[in-house]
Structures are given as structure tokens and as C-alpha cells.
Amino acid sequence: MTGEEKILLDACVLYPTVLREILIGVAARGLYRPLWSARILEEWARAAARNGGPVDEAIARGEIALLRARFPQAEVAPRPGLEARLYLPDENDIHVLAAAIAGGAEAIVTYNAADFPRATLAGEGLDRRDPDGFLWELWSRDPEPVAEAVEAVRAEAERLSGQPQSLRGLLKRVRLHRLGKALQGA
Q1: Closest by CA position to 106, among listed 79, 83, 82, 138
Q2: From its phi and psi, is residue 61 left (phi > 0), alpha (psi between -120 and 50) or beta?
Q3: To 5 degrees, how large is the angle CA 162–CA 163–CA 166?
Q4: Sequence-distant (≥ 6) Cβ neighbours of residue 74 within 8 angstroms
Q5: What backbone phi and psi angles, to 5 degrees, belong to 70?
Q6: pLDDT tens-digit profile of 15-70?
Q7: What is the DSSP string of 6-34?
Q8: DSSP assignments along 75-125, one per residue
């Protein structure tokens, strides 16, 4: 995996904040190129509204604006008609697959394994990666930038909360168990 590899980030890994900040921190350090679509970003904003109301939605929309400014080449738009030829078990996820194809992604990072069958993705030249495995793989190839990104997120969580934030606890909350063990052993 090189910094040129394009990875589509599903909405479920952009929201929650800690996971998104780790993934984006690693991308900012050049280990991969993130991709998303306007619809994926909208799903993130809607999830924030559902879970936290109008204030959280407003915060999410501000974070989305900052993310778009930071990675102006990351947003892709599927070409018209592409979605019509695609199939996934959950038709509401077809737009994610279409965005990955349009962006020339190598993989989709998602927690939704059942909605993105590997055989279907392979037929489109794509892989499905869970966030923990993806980040662990990046760490195994280049540990320093991944560790730096995680530590920056941990320190910011501590600053914002005013409470100590253990690395293990932080990573456990966002289901990054393999990465957590790797970083604890490093």
C-alpha cells in the first residue's frame, strides 16, 4: 500500500469523530488518499442529527466543510447511470460502491461487511476493509505516522474533555482493537 492508494471512506467510519480523525490524520501523513461523495458526507451529517440533534448536525456540517477544504480532490461524483448497473444487498449502499468506482478506489473502508460482499466488490476491482484491519496494515508498513496520528487524536480528546484519555480506552471505543494492541506493544 502506498500513499497513492485511493480508499473510499463510508459514512459509518466518518462518524464517529475519533475514528474519522485517526483515518484523516493518517491520510494527511500521506499513507493513502481518502475519497468520499457528497452523499456520503450528507449521511454523516444526518447521522449526527439523528444521534445528537440540531447542534450536532451543525457541528458535523462545519467539520464536513473543513474536510472538503483540507482534501479538495477527495470528493467524487459517480457518472450518471452507473448506479443502475450495480447491485448490493442493501440498495441504499449502491451509491457508496458507485463513488468508489468513480474515484478509482482500491478499497472501501466500512464496518458494514454484510452490505459489501467481497465477491461483488472484486468484480469491480475493489476490496472491502474494516477500519481496524486497514489501520493495522498501514501501521505494520509504516508505524511512525500512524502512531503520530493516533497520539494527536488522543491528546486532542484529552484536551477537549479535560480528562485523561488512555490510548487503549480511546481505541476500544471505536473498535480499533488490533491497532490498539499493536500500538501498546510498540
Answers
A1: 138
A2: alpha
A3: 135
A4: 33, 34, 35, 36, 67, 68
A5: -75, -35
A6: 989 999 999 999 999 999 999 999 999 999 999 999 999 999 999 999 999 999 99
A7: EEEEPHHHHSSHHHHHHHHHHHHTTS-EE
A8: B--PPTTTGGG---SSGGGHHHHHHHHHHT-SEEE-S-GGGS-HHHHHTTT
Please list, residue by residue across 125-143, b when 16 or more beta carbons sit within 10 angstroms of its beta carbon and e when fewer do. Answer: ebbbbbbbebbbbbbeebe
The Cα–Cα gap between 23 and 12 comes to 12
What DSSP assignment string belongs to 155-181? Answer: HHHHHHHSS---HHHHHHHTT-HHHHH
For the entire predicted model, the pTM comes to: 0.94
- The amino acid present at 75, given as its one-letter code, is E
